[in-house]
Known about the structure:
The protein is an alpha/beta fold and 430 residues long. It is built from 16 helices and 11 strands. It has a 7-stranded mixed beta sheet with strand order 7-6-5-8-9-11-10. Helix 10 (231-243) links the parallel strand 6 (223-228) and strand 7 (250-254). The N and C termini lie far apart (67 Å). The protein has helices at residues 4-16, 46-53, 57-65, 75-86, 106-116, 139-150, 154-161, 179-193, 211-220, 231-243, 279-291, 319-325, 334-344, 355-371, 373-379, 382-400, and strands spanning 23-25, 31-32, 39-42, 69-72, 201-205, 223-228, 250-254, 265-271, 293-306, 347-353, 404-412. Helix 12 packs antiparallel against helix 16 (382-400).
Amino acid sequence: MAGAALRLTTLAGELLGRPFPVRIRAWDGSESGPPGGPVLVVRHRRALRRLLWRPGELGLARAWVAGEIDVDGDLYAALGLLAGILWERPAGPGKGVHPLRDPRLRAAARGLLSLGGPLPPPPPPAEETRRRSGPLHTRGRDRRAISHHYDVGNDFYGLVLGPSMVYSCAYWDEGDGTLEDAQRDKLDLVCRKLGLKEGDRLLDVGCGWGSMAVHAAREYGARVTGITLSREQAAYARKRIADEGLTDRVEIRVQDFRDVHDGPYDAVSSIGMAEHVGRVRYREYADQLLSLLVPGGRLLNHQIARRPEPDESAYELDAFIDRYVFPDGELSPLGRTVTALEDAGFEVRDVEAIREHYARTLRAWVANLESAWPRAVRLVSPGRARVWRLYMAASAVAFERNQIGVDQILAVRTPASGASGMRARTRDWR
């Protein structure tokens, strides 16, 4: 009888209509597939039952988080080879359909049954969020979603992010600088785009662990209000601000952006926060930020963007990201974001795409995580550490392959006179 690995590669090849691109090592020690590259290790036949009951990305993600599958070798290379199967599949018969209901996939289902056994599917790993119901992006639901991702321990985030404690795309301005250099350069670029000067009031929406607030207050003399929904982030940021001697210039609040009413501000920074807002709330987000700015005030909106869908109404949240990483997180195409800001009354003055910078940032975070893996597992759990490794590595590949991007949008609340305060040379921060 053929080994399990050969049966798996044969089954996968029949399903795909071409050879499976990655070598497989099965739980019985057998191997099959192209040599010389990364190896997909199927440690337990339970992984096949997960795929049978939840075909595609979510079934694979559950098996990964549970430790039932792994990669021996270059994880990025493996994800690149598998991208055409997982994320770049053309729409067609069987998409989103259970195998037993799709004639094209019935043979695959029978093969999985024979290898994995007909037992019921295992329960999802503990790190998966429960299914949610009710309206999207209410205050309570957003608060719970933020807590799921950010309130996992500041020590764990420190291990991944490094001393900068900045959880957004760095800006690799020159050469071979460190991650900390690149994050400092990003924060400084934001401050320059906002035209910050001594005494300006800055609202930092989604302030994280306080890095932007500290930089703007210390280097530019701004008076900063930072808001976050994460209590752990707020506690860390407040201590950091006290240690820097900046309590007279910086205030950190646990507050929803919809509940900020103490404008006007001279500038607003929103760095890696708008992905949590969602389509149903984005216009409210844009209206609220506009209302908080003085005439001539600037907004710097730093946001991940997805590529447009041929049919935008068919867009679905990424199953792995939604269940394990950012519950209810939504990406929008750049054009939709710009349109929403303009519809609210902003004048968009500049858009800078920094997609390649995020791929490099993510690889640096993965390297930090991998270099301290035993400690990371102790700080959270094996499953959650595996979630992070997969989501960051897969995101790096997605940025590199231009599946997603990230953009800094500079917008102004231009007064009726048209005097925006911008120079004739738009990029006056260079």
